[in-house]
């Protein structure tokens, strides 16, 4: 196992331990990012809300995580996510929290940038 995999596994295990008690209610109570402010996150957690968009799809809250993989703010609300990467290959990982059924996206190679919170919200994947 190479050193980057060890570091990712250690960061992942710390994140799981720190966030075992996260509920959807706690995640949706996080502060909302300032409008039109571009922010960078180490991971994104997708939390389903109880709201329905005009398109008929459920609105999702995109939670931005800091460098320690800790959720700290709602980056956007949307009904559609557009992943954007300018590389032919990339390593994007996804898992689901057991207690709240929220999805977490992370990568050992990328950080994530969210700019505007629109119906379709673009998440840029930037090589670290």
Secondary structure topology:
Blueprint: H1 3-18, H2 24-28, E1 39-41, E2 43-52, E3 58-65, E4 71-78, E5 80-84, E6 93-96, E7 103-106, E8 110-114, E9 120-127
Parallel strand pairs: 5-9
Antiparallel strand pairs: 1-8, 2-3, 2-7, 3-4, 6-7, 8-9
Structure write-up:
With 128 residues, the protein is an alpha+beta fold. Helices cover 16% and strands 43% of the residues. Strand 3 and strand 4 form a beta hairpin. The protein is globular, with a radius of gyration of 14 Å. The N terminus is likely disordered.
- How many E strands? 9
What Rg is obtained from the alpha carbons, in whole angstroms? 14 Å
Report strand %.
35-45%
Which term fits the overall shape?
A: globular
Low-confidence region ranges: 1-9
Question: Which tags fit this structure?
Answer:
globular, 4-stranded mixed β-sheet, disordered N terminus, 128 residues, 16% helix, alpha+beta, 5-stranded antiparallel β-sheet
Put the structure in a nutshell:
The protein is 16% helix and 43% strand. The protein contains two helices and nine strands; from the N terminus they run ααβββββββββ.
